[in-house]
Design goal:
The complex is a heterodimer of chains A (about 120) and B (about 450).
Chain A (H helix, E strand, L loop, with lengths): L3 E5 L3 H13 L3 E6 L2 H10 L4 E5 L1 E2 L2 E2 L1 H10 L3 E5 L9 H4 L6 E3 L4 H9 L2
Helix pairs in contact in A: 2-3
Chain B lengths: L6 H11 L4 E4 L5 E4 L1 H7 L3 H4 L4 H4 L6 H12 L3 E6 L6 E9 L2 E8 L1 H30 L3 E5 L6 E4 L1 H7 L5 E3 L12 E4 L2 E2 L6 H6 L4 E9 L5 E12 L5 E10 L1 H35 L5 H23 L5 E2 H8 L1 H4 L6 E4 L4 E2 L1 H20 L9 E7 L4 E9 L12 H14 L2 E7 L2 E9 H4 L7
Parallel strand pairs in B: 15-17
Antiparallel strand pairs in B: 1-2, 1-5, 3-4, 4-5, 6-7, 6-13, 7-8, 9-10, 9-11, 11-12, 12-13, 14-16, 17-18, 18-20, 19-20
Chain lengths: ~120, ~450
């Protein structure tokens, strides 16, 4: 059975690319969300094997979603357009072991990050 | 000692023993006694003086000294005081007293003592002036300054700016080192971690340490926070013994906030650019989904190379970037598994943002070409990237060896056009690709100041 993924990404086109990449890599995309509230709802309810989580959702940080996923034991990869600077923040440091891909990322970058889950 | 001494011997002994000049004149002002201290003082032996009158030998009646002597002779009272000496303008302290019907005069030179007193008065006046100047400076500077005279810095003396800044009730107040009951309620933090009292600049300086500029945050009981730039120095006396410390602090809260705001703006801008690049990548991927996979891969690699150099520049606030980091980042896509086959050699230096982008794109194109047709397309080939900065010129060579035999391309692709035309223009120099049979060699030559990050940007 294919592993199921949740994509949280506020840029629709980027979400479509990630969906495409994941499907080509043999995963099934269970849901895509671009809003924090909906993403939180999905994170609490949907059965998935892992998630791709954009850190910035229309100006809101998605760390609450990360906390829910972590509480449920669902691994995830952060995607971010912020450089190395932003990773020094207190919130970020709580997820020090979570793999991060910098946008824009290549298929190879994604494969490498998923391998760390 | 004999039971009785001859009175003349006794007198002579006393006269010489007192060590100060002393002479006695009779009612007619003739010297009758004149000790050797007087002889030394006036430079004339007793033989020249005894029997002569005072007015012949030393003084005239109209001088100040003369009037004092005349008054004493008439009043028959002891007179003491200070006056200018009969010789040399020295200051003497004198005692004139009746002896029989004449006068005894004893004096000693107080010039040295008076000079020392005058010097001390002048030094005190200079010190008062300096103190007044320093106090005015302390009142005026926009910097908080406080000092302590104690090794444990229990109490602080503050200038008005420090009183204002620290919300101290008066110029002198207890410090955080003071006993708990007297201790003020503010606390200091460095990077969000509370500093133990022992580690505060003032306390460190009071123990003899020179504390250079340090950014600390002070938090008050009411929740208010200020960012302070602080420094402190030990105070030592002339012998070098530690006897306190002085500490200065500038409130840089607004400047700090401003810098933080700018940093966030730059971060935000970078985030948007990265997002836009990701959108462009997505559009290309979705558009070319069923198209030519190789073309799509070329495009995506170019976009990712641009994004990589963008990240480097953002990390440096777009001030420039290190050439070594730029070179390595631009070949990142080709380095996977080929790390030891691409070598970099050259002195690392900071280059301008535009140069960084141009060099990065050029190296990426060379890398792509090498991976498809050149040295990186085989198992054994390798690439050497070298640069020099001598003679105010920047010279970079890309040299492939060990690849398949090279034949010049029949038509120039995007990569070679980009390098020979675009890069040359960006660097105000030249770039030439030489398709040698043994391997591609690309030589870039540009004026160093056109690419080196410098203070003046035209």
């Amino acid at each position: 059975m294919k592993k199921r993924a949740l994509i949280v990404e506020d840029e629709v086109l980027v979400a479509m690319l990630v969906e495409e990449l994941l499907e080509r890599l043999g995963y099934e995309v269970a849901a895509i969300s671009s809003h924090l509230d909906q993403a939180l709802e999905f994170a609490r309810t949907i059965e998935v094997d892992f998630a791709m989580l954009d850190i910035n959702l229309n100006g809101k940080q998605s760390f609450p979603v990360a906390e829910v996923l972590r509480a449920r034991g669902i691994p995830f990869v952060f995607a971010t357009g912020y450089g190395g600077h932003a990773q020094g923040t207190e919130l970020f440091s709580q997820f020090a072991n979570v793999p991060v891909v910098q946008k824009p990322f290549s298929r190879a970058d994604l494969v490498q990050a998923l391998a760390r889950l | 000692m004999p039971a009785a001494t001859d009175p003349q011997t006794l007198l002579t002994t006393i006269l010489e023993g007192i060590g100060q000049p002393l002479y006695v004149v009779d009612r007619d002002w003739r010297f009758v006694l004149y000790n050797s201290a007087a002889a030394r003082y006036f430079g004339r032996p007793a033989s020249q003086m005894l029997g002569r009158t005072l007015w012949e030998a030393l003084s005239d009646r109209d001088s100040e000294r003369g009037r004092i002597l005349l008054d004493a002779m008439v009043s028959r009272r002891t007179v003491t005081g200070e006056t200018v000496s009969l010789i040399g303008g020295n200051i003497v302290s004198y005692s004139i007293f009746p002896v029989g019907q004449g006068l005894g005069v004893m004096f000693y030179d107080v010039s040295d003592r008076r000079r020392a007193e005058a010097d001390r008065d002048a030094a005190e006046a200079a010190l008062r002036k300096r103190t007044a100047e320093l106090e005015t400076i302390l009142e005026t500077v926009p910097t908080a300054v406080w000092f302590t005279r104690e090794h444990d810095a229990h109490h602080l003396i503050a200038n008005p700016r420090a009183v204002e800044l620290m919300r101290m009730p008066q110029r002198s107040a207890a410090s955080l080192s003071a006993p708990v009951a007297e201790r003020p309620s503010y606390r200091f933090f460095r990077h969000g971690v509370e500093l133990p009292t022992d580690s505060l600049p003032m306390q460190r300086a009071a123990r003899g340490e020179e504390v250079p500029n340090e950014i600390l945050e002070i938090r008050f009981a009411n929740g208010e926070r200020r960012t302070l730039l602080m420094r402190a120095s030990p105070l030592r006396d002339a012998s070098g013994t530690l006897n306190g410390a002085v500490c200065a602090a500038a409130d840089v809260t607004e400047r700090h906030r401003h810098e933080e705001h700018l940093r966030l703006l730059v971060n935000e801008l970078n985030h948007r650019v990265k997002n836009t690049l990701a959108i462009v990548q997505s559009i290309a991927a979705l558009t070319l989904k069923d198209g030519d996979a190789a073309t799509h891969a070329d495009f995506e690699q170019r976009l990712l190379a641009l994004s990589a150099v963008h990240s480097l520049l953002t990390d440096e606030n777009w001030d420039g970037a290190r050439l070594m980091a730029v070179a390595q980042a631009s070949l990142k896509a080709h380095l996977g598994g080929l790390r030891e086959r691409i070598s970099f050699a050259g002195e690392d230096f900071r280059i301008r943002p535009k140069s960084a982008v141009a060099i990065s794109i050029a190296l990426h194109e060379l890398g792509t070409n090498a991976a498809k047709y050149g040295a990186l397309s085989t198992e054994r080939g390798s690439v050497a990237v070298r640069w020099t900065t001598g003679g105010e010129r920047f010279r970079l060579t890309w040299e492939e060896v060990g690849g398949p035999p090279v034949r010049p391309p029949t038509r120039k692709g995007f990569g070679s056009r980009m390098i020979e035309r675009g890069l040359a223009v960006e660097l105000q120099g030249s770039a030439r690709i030489d398709y040698r049979p043994t391997g591609v060699v690309c030589a870039i030559d540009a004026p160093l100041d056109a690419i080196q990050e410098g203070p003046a940007t035209p």
